[in-house]
Amino acid sequence: MHNHATVSLNARLILRLQDESVITEIAEGDKEDIDAAVAAARKAFDQGPWPKMTGAKRARVLNKFADLLEEHTEELAALETLVGFIELQ
Length: 89
Fold this sequence. Notes:
Blueprint: E1 11-16, E2 22-27, H1 31-47, H2 55-71, H3 73-82, E3 83-87
């Protein structure tokens, strides 16, 4: 049922609060999953394009991200209020 690379088999359902219908299922990571994610992020940061970019280029990327967040604020707020969590047993 899971299509993720987590070690933990715990999952949570994302439900629509209005009628409790299932929107999706997400994996819930444990310490081992978190350690692997941190190691992958560190490697991507150290060996990826970010540290090679100039400060000006990084600023453009961050400003674009901020613009996108601002542009989609209402959609993000709606998603936040739409869902709830129920732990799978």
